[in-house]
Write a structure and sequence with these properties.
Length: 171
Amino acid sequence: MRNRVVGFLFVLIVLAVAGCYLATGGSSFHLRAVRVRAVDALTERPVQGVVVAVKWTTSDLLCIEGECLRRPIRMAEAVTDASGVAQIPAADAARSGWEILGGSQPWVVVYKAGCATRRDSSSAYLIIQPISQAEATERAESKAMLLTSWAFPPAQFPRLAREVQQAATRH
């Protein structure tokens, strides 16, 4: 009788673990499409040539808060067209083990040389032009430090790196 109870508990635990694994994505993650619309903050007109960099990073399954980032599973970038829109298509990414995507994924950086950007809605970003050359230079320098950090490495984001480098040398 005791062996049956132990066997039943073992099967129950295996099923529970398998259920948790499947409930958190199974063997792959479905990464949603990202659509960004860039508009000038003053004129509300579309802004062409804005670089959009997107990165999805997994976390350990049992991580609740803090630095639990595990690995980047997809990195992509695009440039806004004449209508101010950039799109990164949906994709599936292989899952290597007990990891999850956090609710704030993906990380999105919207960049236009010398400009500040502010998120206006779920997909709209305001592009704020500098009011002076000094302000443009300061923004270019601060973005160069931020964007070339570990979060958005130049090797994986060549358009972004090129735009930041050109802005740093211009200003």
